[in-house]
Amino acid sequence: MDSTLFLPITILVLITILFILVSLNSRKIDIRKRKKVVEALYNLNDSAKSEELAVRRDTIIKLDNLLSKSLQMYFKNNLQCGENLKLAKKIFKKRAYNSVWEVHKLRNKVVHDDYQISLEESKSAFEVYKINILRVLQ
């Protein structure tokens, strides 16, 4: 083979391989999985507005589970929500990142300290979870 053609062909092959590797390792989330999480998210909207404490308690736990699943799909791992939140700092703007941490801590208080989440806290937490779960799933 002519040496003047060898270098351009080699460069093209390397660029092609690099493109394939990058596209295979992209952060795209399967559409069916994304749809399932989004449906579950919107199904929790009414529960977040419930007058019943037990329903609000279950709702915040389910919302945190959806955030956890979303982050696991994004990072392609099986880490717990808190661990993935540490990795997710680059996904969110600072204010959104802090909001996500606050609702995650609220969920922990509900689960571990038997905290009685108010209706307003539940509504607010739902909005934070919704915005940020959708951001992760983009």
Structure overview:
Helix 4 packs across helix 6. The chain is 78% helix and 0% strand. The longest helix has 23 residues, at 53-75. The chain is elongated, with a radius of gyration of 21 Å. The model has no long low-confidence stretch (mean pLDDT 91). The protein has one domain (29-137): Four Helix Bundle (Hemerythrin (Met), subunit A). By secondary structure, the chain is mainly alpha-helical. The chain contains 7 helices and no strands.
Topology:
Elements: H1 3-24, H2 31-43, H3 45-48, H4 53-75, H5 81-87, H6 94-112, H7 119-137
Helix pairs in contact: 2-4, 2-7, 4-5, 4-6, 4-7, 6-7
CATH C-level label: Mainly Alpha
Assign the CATH topology. Answer: Four Helix Bundle (Hemerythrin (Met), subunit A)
Measured between the Cα atoms of the first and last residue, the distance is: 47 Å
Report the average pLDDT across residues. Answer: 91
CATH architectural designation:
Up-down Bundle
Q: Ranges with pLDDT <50 over ≥5 residues?
A: none
Shape: elongated
Determine the strand fraction and express it as a percent band: under 5%
Summarize the structure.
This protein is mainly α and 138 residues long. It has helices spanning 3-24, 31-43, 45-48, 53-75, 81-87, 94-112, 119-137.
Describe the structure using short key phrases.
Four Helix Bundle (Hemerythrin (Met), subunit A), 0% strand, mainly alpha, 7 helices, 78% helix, 138 residues, elongated
